UniProtKB/TrEMBL annotation:
The keyword Transferase applies. This is RNA methyltransferase. It comes from the Bacteria. Pfam families: SpoU_methylase. GO terms for cellular component: cytosol. It comes from Draconibacterium orientale. GO terms for molecular function: RNA binding; RNA methyltransferase activity. Residues 25-168 form the tRNA/rRNA methyltransferase SpoU type domain. CDD domains: SpoU-like.
Length: 176
């Protein structure tokens, strides 16, 4: 077995990516502190043709060398927009017909394996701060919450890991 070279992978150019049909998922980053986490979410979003990323509050925005280190230029392909207040984005997305879900441990959350988006449902996923999670005022506005089951002693995943798990799972459910 031989590893494939990058040229053999048939990846889209940035221009082709911008013109391609996107997955009906948007990501909302609520006060993410780490530029490495932000960059990782851009890279995962690029890989799964995520529609857009909303960067909110203290979340850094491109151009930023720390974001670029982990995004590997995905910040140039994935559309993004900055809002000071996450609550404003949630309301905007709901007005546009999105179902907005906090990725958080809350009462009556839906376990990720049990979550099944409705046909043609537009999904917005809110990922929260590395320490405090999704702000309660944002959780209050969301249509629901999706929780990743966990079985060890820790009560959370890193935001970039959470995004990878949730985006891959929902991408697979929407694509099938």
């Amino acid at each position: 077995m031989r590893k494939l070279r990058n040229i053999e992978l048939g990846r889209l150019s940035v221009e082709e990516y911008k013109q391609s049909t996107k997955t009906p998922i948007v990501v909302v980053l609520d006060n993410i502190r780490s530029c490495n986490n932000i960059g990782s979410v851009f890279r995962t979003s690029d890989a799964l043709l995520i529609n857009k990323i909303y960067l909110c509050g203290i979340t850094a925005t491109p151009p930023n060398n720390e974001i670029r280190k982990t995004a590997l230029d995905a910040e140039k392909s994935v559309d993004w927009q900055y809002f000071e207040h996450t609550e404003e984005v949630v309301k905007k997305l709901q007005e546009e017909g999105f179902k907005v879900y906090a990725i958080e441990q809350v009462e009556n959350s839906i376990m990720l394996p049990d979550y099944q988006p409705a046909n043609d449902e537009k999904v917005a996923l809110v990922f929260g701060n590395e320490v405090k999670g999704v702000k309660q005022s944002v959780v209050n506005l969301c249509d629901g919450s999706i929780e990743i089951p966990q079985y060890g002693t820790k009560h959370s995943f890193n935001i970039s890991v959470s995004a990878g798990i949730v985006l891959w799972d929902i991408f697979q459910k929407i694509s099938n």
